[in-house]
Write a structure and sequence with these properties.
Elements: E1 2-6, H1 11-22, E2 26-31, E3 42-45, H2 54-57, E4 63-66, H3 79-96, E5 101-107, E6 116-118, H4 129-147, E7 151-157, E8 159-161, H5 170-179, E9 184-186, E10 193-194, E11 196-198, H6 199-210, E12 217-221, E13 227-228, H7 229-239, E14 245-247, E15 261-263, H8 266-273
Parallel strand pairs: 1-2, 1-4, 2-3, 4-5, 5-7, 6-15, 7-12, 8-11, 9-14
Antiparallel strand pairs: 10-13
């Protein structure tokens, strides 16, 4: 397939574009910059919201993977609500002009405070601007895709583990602190349990989900099991031979963070079990 990827130069986009290309598909990569985008992709530097007919201008792709989103790690940024209408309008333009397959990156923060395994029927009660805006976009996607008889996927992402200093996750921040020569990293008590997935595995799961048509709707991009935050971070430090130590109790847990939450991985396991996602 010819797959248009928005937000292709971002932390997730860089790895996901590479994974899609490795699976044999063609990628049209769109972002404000192409500095970190795989050279095998057709790269377009622009503001996608300003394109009048994005479906035509981006080469009439077979599928759209919409990763673009500002301030994903700043959960109460004004950008989430300020940009929401623009995302909706972009999806509407693409579908109204002929797009038949669309996938959008979601987040487990749509769910809000919840304990246990999350599947596609789990009720959503988001408690941050980020979660509320993403939840609204998912509802809009489902409605607009039905209106245009298009295939849709909502890729609900969980917690990503990677040693790139490029991102804003706790793992990226620890990596940056290690490179700066810091000896301590301020931390919570780390007792909450989350669903962690290595960056490369996350990108491969997204690429596999987008590259197939059998399984649609909400798809968890996850490991399928919970692990204590403190255990995963300590293991991350050990895996990378870092010298930095955690300063436990420096920060309180966020009120909206669940005590134990993880994704149901049945759909993604089924996708990975067959190789339809490879061109």
């Amino acid at each position: 397939m010819k797959i248009l990827v928005t937000g292709a130069n971002g932390y997730l986009g860089q790895g996901i574009v590479k994974a899609i290309l490795d699976n044999g598909h063609k990628v049209i990569a769109c972002d404000f910059s192409d500095k970190n985008i795989d050279s095998r992709a057709e790269r377009i530097v622009c503001n996608m919201f300003e394109t009048l007919n994005p479906y035509e201008e981006f080469g009439e792709p077979d599928c759209l993977l919409h990763l673009a989103w500002r301030d994903g790690f700043v959960h109460n940024s004004d950008a989430h609500f300020n940009d929401l209408a623009k995302h909706c309008q972009f999806l509407q333009k693409m579908l109204s002009c002929g797009l038949k397959k669309v996938a959008v990156m979601g987040t487990m923060h749509e769910i809000g405070f919840f304990e246990g395994s999350i599947n596609e029927t789990t009720p959503c009660h988001p408690q941050t601007c980020y979660g509320i805006a993403k939840n609204a976009l998912r509802d809009y996607l489902q409605m607009i895709a039905k209106q245009y008889n298009a295939e849709w996927k909502w890729l609900r992402g969980y917690y990503i583990v990677g040693n790139s200093g490029f991102g804003n996750s706790i793992f990226s921040k620890i990596t940056a602190a290690e490179k700066e020569g810091k000896t301590e990293f301020p931390f919570t008590m780390g007792q909450n349990q989350y669903d962690f997935l290595n960056y490369e595995d996350f990108c491969q799961q997204v690429a596999a989900a987008v590259g197939q048509s059998k399984i649609n709707g909400i798809i968890n991009i996850c490991s399928g099991r919970p692990e204590k935050l403190a255990d995963r971070v300590e293991r991350f430090i050990k895996e990378n031979n870092y010298k930095i130590h955690l300063k436990y109790g420096a920060f309180p847990d966020r009120e909206y963070d669940s005590k134990a939450v993880w994704g149901n991985d049945a759909k993604i396991r089924e996708i990975l079990a067959n190789e339809e996602y490879k061109a």
